[in-house]
Amino acid sequence: MTLIAWREDFTIGLPDVDYEHRELVSMINALLESLGPDTGVPQIVAALGEIHARIALHFALEERDMHQLHYAAAAEHKDDHERLLDDILDIIDTVESPLDYDPEALGDRLSRWFTGHFRTHDARLHRWLVGRS
Amino acid sequence: MTANPRRWLRATFGALEAVCTRVFSPAWNPLVQLGAIGWFFYWVVAVSGVYLYVFFDTGITRAYDTVEALTHAQPWIGGVMRSLHRYASDGLVAVALVHLLREFAFARMKGKRWFGWITGLPVLMLIYVSGITGYWLVWDVLAQYVAVTTAELLDVLPLFGEPISRNFVNQVALSSRFFTLMSFIHIAAPLLLLLFMWIHIHRHAAARIQPARGLGVLVAGSLLGLAIVVPAVSQARANLDQVQATIGLDWFYLPLYPLVQQWGGATVWQLLGGMLLVLGLVPWLPRGTPAPVAKVNLLNCNGCGRCVADCPFGALSLEPRSDWQKYQAEAVVNADRCFSCGLCVGSCPTATPFRSASVFAAGIELPQLPLVTLREQLEKSCAPLAGGDRLVVFACEHAGTLGADLRRNAAVARMPCIGMLPPSFIDFVFSRRLADGVVIAGCGANSCYHRLGQRWTEQRIAGQRDPWLRARVPRERIALSWDADLGAFRKGLASLPVLRLGGRGASKPLPLPAGPRWPVPMRAIGIALLLGAMAGITGLLATSPGWRQLGQDEAVLQLSIRHATATKVECKPLTPQQMAELKPNMRRPVDCPRERWPVYLELERDGQLLYRGTHEPSGLWNDGAATVFRTFRIPAGPQSIVVRMRDSGRASGFDHVHSGTIDLEPGQNFVIEFRSGEGFTWH
Lengths: 133, 683
Ligand code: HEM
Ligand code: SF4
Ligand code: SF4
Ligand SMILES: [Fe+2]
Ligand SMILES: [Fe+2]
Fold this sequence. Notes:
The structure holds 2 protein chains of 2 kinds.
Chain A: H1 15-34, H2 41-68, H3 74-96, H4 103-132
Helix pairs in contact in A: 1-2, 2-3, 3-4
Chain B: H1 3-24, H2 34-55, H3 63-73, H4 75-105, H5 114-137, H6 141-156, H7 176-202, H8 213-229, E1 246-247, H9 257-263, H10 265-281, E2 295-296, H11 306-310, E3 316-320, E4 329-333, H12 343-347, E5 364-365, H13 371-382, E6 391-396, E7 410-415, H14 423-431, E8 437-441, H15 453-461, E9 478-480, H16 486-493, H17 520-541, E10 547-548, E11 554-563, E12 572-573, H18 576-581, E13 590-591, E14 599-605, E15 608-615, E16 626-635, E17 637-646, E18 656-664, E19 669-675, E20 679-682
Parallel strand pairs in B: 6-7, 6-8, 8-9, 11-19
Antiparallel strand pairs in B: 1-10, 2-5, 3-4, 11-16, 12-13, 14-15, 14-17, 17-18, 19-20
The complex binds protoporphyrin IX containing FE (HEM), iron/sulfur cluster (2 copies) and fe (ii) ion (2 copies).
């Protein structure tokens, strides 16, 4: 299972947000590490549930900041957050249904799910913040 | 003690609201936005008032004429403006009183929640002050009645050195002094009213101060209709030498005025004071111990501020972080303003039942109902359900008893307010296949006890407010008790297509479909009838039934005296020796004790004693003038009057006597006065 490597461009320049980005990466990595053919479903579901809560919390904070800074692309960015929140619940459902559960695929899906948004929307927010100052 | 009338009132309001919801639709129901309608009326009054003021002459001699000119010379603007001004003011009273009753009925002012109630009281009083001074300004016979009665009322209070009633004794005594004061108060009180109205809603997040647009149009329309059909007009010009037997009273503003004549000013003040005292104590009437307030759990709070935005009572704020976590802010609860509604819980991103097993806490929670407990209860009570129409009812504590439809094959989870429910709980019910449908049960449409619980719930479902109910949750499996045909919903559940979550991609959440509505023509008729009735009642009570203040064959006799009697001891020169004994700053050549003799008066009509009394001089040292003001209603016609005064301290006999036969017209105001040089005069 490939873990998510921390990259400097995951930092966007807002201390709270950056702190959470690090926390989230380590949370997901911890889950990815634990994933294996024998991992119990309840354990994965529990971990995913926690990730769901923390990432929703994180999005809320990022949205607060975008709103306060009058970030022009805030609406699109939020839409992507909402899409991710949709996805994570679908992922949880997948894990819960024994037929669909495949640790390898789940791991990939999770890292893609997570880093995709970092690379695009969060990175764009980062560039905007840099351009501003 | 209050439980029974309150229960009765609540049932009445509940029934009325149900009718209005049907007729007006939930969004336009006036009963659930009385405060907002009040604000609307206020603005109508303010705008029309400014217009009237432009044409109004604040001098007492010209006031009546300028109002008449405004009414008749420009009926389509001035006349309508005047009518709007009057009827919107009446509306303001009506709305304030019904709003007061309703807030009382639903107990939205208990204990810690006193603020809205207590700040409502000055609002109510200022409405009355504004309206009463307004009627004064027209200077017609109603204004005269208001002036005379108000003076009588005020004279009971130890506010003024001498009876202000003497200003309104007759046309000769009349000056512009009070009139100018009244026009000043009539502008100042409404401005103060605005300030207090603002304070009144100042602690409410997202207070409703604008009625729904459609309702606003309807109310404005009925106001305008009333203004055109029953224009507000003046009564006869005021004439203090006459007392009009019957006058048209505005029963919204002046219902207590007849009582002044009936019971006397002092009793009316006692009544008012008693009413105010009772009203002021209402929030602290016996009640249960308040529930514990919301509690922030810093490990799950990053200061995102959603709870702050959603708290209906401004009980939350973001403050600098107090723990080691690298965040800037955290939510802080103001315990005095938190009414334990739980709306904050429903807004917190970490409030999700999908979290790990047995222990979790949201960023903010109600200690009396942690989400872990809610989830546990939910799972437990869903276990025995079976079949294709299993139901979960999330119900607020104020939702009352649930109908049979909602108790069959159903699990009920109660919480203080439906706004406490995090949307993810609904998702959870379906995701875990706990049930086939979810009913969200709360108060009547738009009448949430905790103000915003229903609104936030609807917005969260519709993806208009965070946190969203995920788009994947099938909306056809959810119903709101306040806007759905629950019977049909329940019946339809079993026949819905198989529940599938997920796979909806990036679709946006949808609002729930609106509940059943009456056909438009029926609603239109209902609205026309209800608003027409309201307007009709307003127009009627604004002038009738007339108040008969004087019998057909009666006249008024007034005794109005201000007399500085002689001092009890003559002034005498001091000897130089006596002067030397006084303190330097007290030295004076004559010693003048200042105390004056009291005035003793008798008034006889046709040989019968009407009045007898002793009046002490005014002033701290009894060194001022004695004043007497008394009003008597007597039969009209010829009669003999004798008035006698003793003002010299003699033991018997009189210093001044005046007698004669007078012939009074019905309604005549006959005044007996006294001038120190000339003795009694009457006319
Ligand atoms: C015409 C005068 C008044 C106006 C315009 C007015 C307006 C309002 C408004 C806009 C609200 C907020 C409604 C909401 O958004 O939930 C409110 C709430 C309230 N008002 Fe009034 N009000 C008036 C008079 C009064 C009076 C006379 C009383 C009672 C003494 C009163 C007692 C209350 C109470 C108890 C609440 C609820 C407070 C709470 O939710 O904690 N109001 N009023
Ligand atoms: S909503 Fe939750 S996380 Fe956000 S500030 Fe409030 S308690 Fe904290
Ligand atoms: S429980 Fe209600 S009143 Fe108390 S902080 Fe939360 S939202 Fe505000
Ligand atoms: Fe983001
Ligand atoms: Fe982010």
